[in-house]
Specification:
Blueprint: E1 5-10, H1 14-23, E2 32-37, H2 45-53, E3 58-63, H3 74-91, E4 99-103, H4 109-124
Parallel strand pairs: 1-2, 1-3, 3-4
Length: 128
Amino acid sequence: MRPKILAFCCQYCGYAGADLAGVSRTGYPPNVLISRVPCSGRVSPLHVLEAFKAGYDGVLIIGCHPGDCHFVSGNELCEKRVEMFKEVLERVGFDSSRLRLEWVSASEGNRFAEVVRDFAEKLGGMGD
């Protein structure tokens, strides 16, 4: 069974990278639902919790590369939140590797596809 993945993608880089992967017909697993967000810095731990509560096996957050954030430091804020939230997940006995943060630019459609394929593969090997 394929793992269900929710990907929060920054509209300027991550989402554009996903779009490029699509128009370039770069293959990646169809079991990923993409949610466009204004900035990766807008994704809160509550969004991640709700995704897991809704039955997603993994949550992927994709933002602009460090230094390239359209909101100056939103991606840095996101990185700090993800690090903190992974610690919280581990403390309550949840596998924090089910949450992943990656940087993908608008011109990296192939990288977007690789990240999704790799994450799906790792989640698929975990079992329930």
